[in-house]
Amino acid sequence: MKRALVTGGSGVIGSAICLLLAERGFDVLVHANSRQERARALAAQIVGAGGAAESICFDVSDRAACRTALSALAEDRPVQIVIHNAGIHDDAPLAGMTGEQWDSVMNVSLNGFYNVVRPLLLPMIATRWGRIIGMSSVAAVVGSRGQANYAAAKSGLHGVSKALAVELASRGITANVVAPGIIESEMASSFKPEQILQMVPMKRAGRAEEVAAVVGFLASDDASYVSGQVIGVNGAMI
């Protein structure tokens, strides 16, 4: 049974990804930092339905904490699927954005990718099979007013994933990015219905399960020749 780690697994999209991977027979590590109770509840739900899961809690922006938690995991059994879904917003126009706002968002989405993936790579390489998936955003593709930090952090995942795809191509490991648009979630609650009608050609917000379906494909054997790609799930916004 292959082991999958989903950072930010307690959120709306993260939970949908965890549930789908568990349904497909993966042993799922549901990660959380501030939402630890949600992660534990989701892991219990998966186990109750006959799947394999456990919760794991640490701060992805804390490099030492990641190394400690993940090195121990990899020693026990390699993690072969990593979905870096953790991310935060701290919006402001760049002219008024504080250094703390910039750093906090970069530290979770981009530095967090390094902090999480780096300790797991060598054990994954030894298995000659792996899937690394970064969760980005349409904001990283087209830009978004007031979200320079978020767009920069998420677009950084595009570059690192393309580089990893080349580095790991001969090792049976793929690296890709999924970039959702407006998805029904707490983060999308600020959009009014008329804004969604105007912005999204499909005239609706997406569902977390629709994002999870793309992630599930990229995590499967069927996607063994798909690597270095940024795949939008955005209702034809771009």
Structural domain count = 1
Number of helices: 9
Largest sheet, spatial ordering of strands: 3-2-1-4-5-6-7
Shape: globular
The fold-level CATH name is: Rossmann fold
Features:
238 residues, alpha/beta, Rossmann fold, seven-stranded parallel sheet, 47% helix, globular
Write the layout of secondary structure elements.
Elements: E1 3-7, H1 12-23, E2 27-32, H2 36-48, E3 52-57, H3 63-76, E4 81-84, H4 99-109, H5 111-127, E5 130-135, H6 138-142, H7 148-168, E6 173-180, H8 193-199, H9 208-218, E7 230-233
Parallel strand pairs: 1-2, 1-4, 2-3, 4-5, 5-6, 6-7
What does it look like?
By secondary structure, the protein is an alpha/beta fold. It has one domain: 3-Layer(aba) Sandwich (Rossmann fold). Helix content is 47%, strand content 16%. It contains 9 helices and 7 strands. It has a 7-stranded parallel sheet, with helices on both faces. α2 links the parallel β2 and β3. α1 packs across α9 and α3 runs parallel beside α5.
